[in-house]
Structures are given as structure tokens and as C-alpha cells.
């Protein structure tokens, strides 16, 4: 079974479409959607409907902090740009779309795999896995061999050995990584809809549950069209600029 790990779509229809097309070309059979389907981008309804289609076909999906804020229509702790996008998003979603967001779980466990948006130690607190310390805290909080999470918009991989030795590295797209059986792993695929590592190409990853092979992927897409959608929605210009720069 080859799983596409897609997170932080952020209402970017162009990026999500390109990633789905690329995933099909890689022989993906299953999808895990790790939250933040809305916020920032100009096409929340389209993206959310596509997520709902995938979930109806068997995909895993979990709640992100932007999803929670949009569903409730509240974002008091967010920065001004994010809050403006969430408030606008809430006004553009219909009752069924909002209800879908509200019923999303914070985490899902399938066999030895944990899917969660932010972390395993406090999924509802939305704390970021910013480095090895938070990654180890997350891995210690679960018995699952694999943890797949989003929230951080840059691709990253962490591991914990059976003797307690921790490691981390920044992956290279397209290079297959064997996830060795004597370790726990925390995989952050990077953001599909708003990468922040200086490269505007969409991020996602594929995981083969039989071989244990992991591949981080980068997919070029029409960034200009995604930025134009943000501008057409009347959202802050800075949100469009960040897409173009990958920041």
C-alpha cells in the first residue's frame, strides 16, 4: 500500500491539484490528509470538497488549527493576516462544509501509524514540532512506529532508536529513504499549499507501508494563478507574496 501524505493545503487549489496528479503517477493507492485544508488561500470550498471526496473513498483526514478556527468562526490567537483569511473562509463555506470540519478527529491511528496535525503529545494544543526536542516529546507520547504530522511547513524527518538515540535530517526530494524497523519515526511532509523553505513548489510525501520506503516530493504548480486567487478574494497581499517566494 502506497500512501500519499498531504498536509497544510491552505485552500490552494492549484497546488492540491498538482499534488494529486503527481501522486497518481507514483502509484499511490491511499491518502492521509493531515489538516489545515483551509486558511490563507483563495479556494477553500473547492479544496474542502476535494478532501471530502477523498475521505468518502477511504482517505484518512484529521483536523488542523486553521480548520478548527474556520469551523468556529474564531481565531483570536492568530496573526492578523491568518485571522483575516480564517474569517473570510468561514463566510465562504456552506453548512455541510463547516459540519465536515467540525467532525474531523484530532488524530487517527491505523495499525502502527499515527496521523495527526500538530504533534502526538498534545494534539489540541497545536504546539509545533520545531526541532529535535519537540520531536522526541512527540515520539515518546505514542507507541506507534510511525507518526505523520503537519503544522510545520518545511519537510523534516526525525527518528528515535530503541536505545533512546535521537536523530534528524532535512530530506532531499525524490530520494528514497528506508525507515528502519528498529526505530520510531516522525515524518513532516511539508506544506502542499504554502511551503516555507524558500522553494514555492508544493510538498508532500509517499510512504510504502509494505517496504517501509519513504519519499519526500516537490511538485511545481501554477503559483501565479494561486496568488491571483488570493488577490481576487481580497485577502491580504502578503499572503500572495509569500506563495511566490515560498516563505
Automatic annotation (TrEMBL):
Gene3D superfamilies: 3.60.21.10. Belongs to the metallophosphoesterase superfamily. YfcE family. PANTHER family: BLL5683 PROTEIN, METALLOPHOSPHOESTERASE. Coiled coil: none annotated. This is Metallophosphatase family protein. InterPro entries: Ap4A_hydrolase (IPR050126), Calcineurin-like_PHP_lpxH (IPR024654), Metallo-depent_PP-like (IPR029052), Pesterase_MJ0912 (IPR011152). Residues 1-208 form the Calcineurin-like phosphoesterase domain.
